[in-house]
Design a protein that fits this description.
By secondary structure, this protein is of the alpha+beta class. The chain has a single domain, classed as PSTPO5379-like domain (PSTPO5379-like fold), CATH 3.30.2040.10. About 25% of the residues lie in helices and about 25% in strands. A hairpin with a 2-residue loop joins strand 3 and strand 4. The C terminus is likely disordered.
Length: about 280
């Protein structure tokens, strides 16, 4: 029998992972596994793995790398004692030659000995801290997927990987903007502080009611749209690269790790030129 989102909200990690692994829960993970690091996913051939790692290093804001598998090993042992990357994500997107070919809940039949899995930090991690501060998040309160958009912000290319940054949006009360910026800044593995605050058009988003991924969310009269770098960014880069095969999470459907969200997990990062919108977010 399927397991509901409401049932899993207060479940322990073994119960949550079991529900995902056996296909009983195949929906979004926002609000689940509270206190634990959630991760985006990218799986590709070892032939492209070094260039992809360079891409993550050069773009640490949207691509905070938190774990890399051994070649051909689906067990992500650095992120937990029992994580099988073939089964432990609620939904996977399968891309062939840069085009979305299928969405599945298990990739065991696609796994081969030359694949490498990358886990990248997810903004769902800092959302728990924002909620603990008493700041509501509409998409979680309404069982929706956070709205995500393609921006006009360029990422730094590496090998075949390049493209525009994807951002996620949350409507925040004007009076609590500084608090939200300070809370999210504490989580560099979850994209850190916002990349942009205010007018969506300044980062190339013409219609905030029309999302590229996720569900539209209202912005109240006393609220401001706040945008964070999003872990769907490498998914866009993978699409553009046109690889024969790559596998990602379905946006909003994350890997929940064993790692505490405030743990000092090693992350590959690099100093890269700072985009003006990044500066605005960090200084807000």
């Amino acid at each position: 029998m399927p397991v509901t989102y409401e049932t899993l909200l207060n479940s322990d990690l073994p119960s949550l992972r079991k529900a995902v692994r056996f296909g009983k829960y195949t929906a979004h993970t926002a609000g689940l596994g509270r206190g634990l690091l959630q991760a985006n996913l990218a799986i590709l051939s070892k032939s492209y793995a070094l260039d992809f790692m360079r891409y993550c290093q050069r773009n640490p804001k949207p691509c905070p790398l938190t774990g890399v598998s051994d070649t051909g090993n689906p067990l992500m042992f650095t992120l937990g004692h029992d994580i099988d990357i073939r089964t432990d994500v609620p939904a996977y997107n399968i891309y062939r030659n840069g085009l979305l070919d299928d969405t599945v809940s298990d990739i065991s039949d696609l796994w081969t000995d030359d694949l490498v899995a990358f886990a990248l930090g997810c903004s769902f991690t800092f959302e728990h801290a924002i909620q603990q501060a008493g700041i509501p998040l509409w998409h979680i309160d309404n069982n929706k997927t956070v709205p995500m958009f393609r921006s006009n912000i360029d990422t730094v290319p590496a090998g075949p990987f390049s493209g525009k940054m994807v951002v996620s949006m949350r409507a925040i009360q004007q009076s609590r903007l500084a608090e939200v910026v300070n809370v999210s800044r504490r989580y560099p593995l979850a994209h850190g502080a916002p990349i942009h605050i205010g007018d969506p058009a300044e980062i190339g988003i013409m219609d905030i009611g029309h999302t590229d991924w996720g569900d539209p969310a209202p912005v109240g009269d006393d609220q401001v749209p706040v945008f964070w770098a999003c872990g769907v960014t490498p998914q866009v880069a993978l699409e553009a690269a046109g690889l024969p095969l790559c596998i990602t999470h379905k946006p909003g459907y994350m890997l929940i790790t064993d790692i505490a969200e405030d743990a000092e997990v090693p992350v590959i990062s690099a100093h890269t030129p700072t985009h003006d919108h990044n500066q605005q977010g960090e200084k807000s």
